[in-house]
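Let us practice reading a record.
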Amino acid sequence: MNKSLSLIMTALLFIIFLGGCRYMTIDTASPNPKLPPYPVTMYSAGRFMLPVPNGLDISSTVFKVNKITIEEIAWKKGRDREEYLKEVWTTVREREHKTYLRRAKVGPATQGGWAEEDISHLFGYPAMLLCYNGNMADHNIDVHIGLPEAILRLTESRFYPIGKACIDMDSRILTLFKHYRFGNKNVAPDSFFSAGGRVEGLKTWYEQAGIGVKRPASESRPKIYLRFDTVPPVTSEFPKSIYVISDVARKYGMKLNVLRSQKRLLAGMEGREEIFLLRDKDDDEFELTASWRYQGVKKDPEKPDIEIELSCPESAKEEALRMWDAVMKNFTTVREYYGRRS
């Protein structure tokens, strides 16, 4: 091979290599190996155990089973429990009754029934039921149950004919309650976890879990926010690479710097991990985003659509990347975590 042809072939291979790099793993986001692993606390959420980096506090949660929202309200110290249960229930009642009366003035499309009842006999604990109209023709069935450990609030949105009274409001909620356990002792590996308790042995057709944890900004350090979400699968398409928006970003004057883009296996599930810096043309600082997305398997509650995302200003990059890698390393399923401990 003559020298000229050799140079041409070398140049072509270099061009091909550069083009291929556009979709290859680019790992310039590895944290400093001299620093120790970032400490985490394992937090149960739905079917999974989310590693929450120390220093980040839970700011929001959403837990739904069969579209019934689950919330646990801590007993207030120094207060009579029966009195506090009535106070919590009365606060919700007054707020929703005002909304109910306001919507009733609009017209038949927003009118619905109203019900409030002591249903302690159904649950074996002090329990109060509210039913009030929602945004459309639906009704919210809102039940507060005074368990020994916490006030359990179960809320379900259900369609009812316009103007009809609330009837047969407790059957689905009562079924869920019979499968609810508070705490994390003697856990069945197929449990779905809410903030304080879990649901075991219930046939489910809809599960949703969401957690937001954050470290607020202060004078000495920038904010860091981590969120985790699961919902039933809506697509079988593998998550797209961040590179698909690179042309759009340039078109609108944004600057995109991809630090890591790859397929990554977590808890036996192959998803896509992306870490990048993005800056709008009017911003002074880049925003770091690290994410892992997984497209779920339909009719498999242990493999829903999953999204884990961490975001912060670039100035927190080094610490945030250590947090991120700790989350990726320790993330697991409830089945695996409790199976390992049993």
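A brief commentary: The first helix runs from residue 3 to 21.
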